[in-house]
Amino acid sequence: MRKLFEQAQARHAGCPVSPQxxxxxxxxAEGGTKQGRERKYGNEITTVDGIRFDSxxxxxxYEQLKLRKAAGEVSHWLRQVxxxxxxxxxxxxxxxxxxxxxxxxxxxxxxxxxETKEFRIKKRGVEHHYPVRIKLA
Length: 137
Hints:
- By secondary structure, the chain is an alpha+beta fold.
- The chain has helices at residues 2-11, 19-29, 56-70, 117-129, and strands at 46-48, 51-53, 74-84, 90-99, 107-110, 134-136.
């Protein structure tokens, strides 16, 4: 990326480059904004079984689901399930858990360290527009 930026800069030698553009190019060249920066809520990106999770807590919940599946309680689960709301808003559910017990409704699970205002608003919207109850883990 930096090489392309320098080539473009050489072609347009008379045009000045803003500091914001130069900083963005440096950030991308160093691996992007998510690498090595302080996370907003203190979560730490974790990888388990080659799957990237946004937090250690979410990775632990995944490991618990694997144990529950081995015990025969859980049939399967889906990760990062989008739920679309009016006005173009999208809520992404961490886990949708299906059980082996016949007739048992699936669990809609969101793994949170703390409830934010934005989460409460979106959760309320999802529960209003869909016949589901979101469980916090």
